[in-house]
Amino acid sequence: MQSIVAYLRVSTQKQGTSGLGLEAQGEAIRRFAEAEGRRVIQTFTEVETGKGAEALDRRPQLAAAVKAARKARCPIVVSKLDRLSRDVHFISGLMRERVPFIVTELGAHTDPFMLHIYAALAEKERRLISERTKASLAAAKARGVKLGGANAQSELAAKEAQARAEELRPLFAELSGLSARKVADELNRRAVATPAGGKWHAATVLRVRERLAPSNKSGS
After folding, report:
1. Contact 86, 116 (CB under 8 A)
2. What is the pLDDT of residue 219?
3. Cα 48 to chain center, whole Å?
């Protein structure tokens, strides 16, 4: 039976204290291990931000997981790519550690190069949503609407992304039995735009699925 090292992360102290998100991540990894015939030899849990390409310096548990996986010559498994990071440069840095990473929702045989692609697409989607939010804020300000600070703007961006995802809920329910890649192909075939207004990729499908999941309020 092949060994794996599990890595779980939440990005706020509140989530870490409550356990919100961690239980779901652990369950996803447990199901993956069972389905793939693998054994979790160690589990590392982190409560820390994923922002910034230098974030590994602030994430000792991830550094420890890399060390343990290298010693055991086995991969690190996470439930979702953003549990490693939402930053493509950070993902690139992890790849240089020469320790394989497996994302359960992408499957055991995803090419490591594709992790860069998925991270880049997710990063682009966030940037486009941010730009649309800034445009909406500027238009509101021009109309004389009083705007809040950075937190209010961030909350508005999150609400906008969630609202766009909700519009897609019926389609995602219809295609729920398909893989993320097949859903992307089908949505592109139907000429359905992503929440950011572009074409669909597996990473985009996974992010919308996350927003539509009952546990999406667990945070990131």
Report:
1. no
2. 44
3. 15
The helix or strand, by DSSP H or E, that contains position 5, with its residue range, turns out to be: strand 2-10
Token pair for 204: 């985009």
Q: Mean pLDDT per segment of 10 residues, for the chain of length 220 residues? A: 93 57 89 94 84 67 94 94 80 84 86 75 68 68 61 62 80 88 88 77 88 62
Structure tokens at 11: 């990005």
Residue 116 near residue 91 (C-beta atoms within 8 A): yes
- pLDDT reported for residue 130: 66
Q: Is the pTM of this model over 0.70?
A: no
CA atoms within a 13 Å half-sphere pointing along the CA-CB vector of 39: 5
> CA dihedral in degrees (133, 136, 142, 144; nearest 10)?
-90
Q: What is the largest CA-CA distance in the chain?
A: 64
The pair of structure tokens assigned to 23 is: 């239980």
CB atoms within 10 A of CB 111: 9
Q: Which amino acid is at 125?
A: E
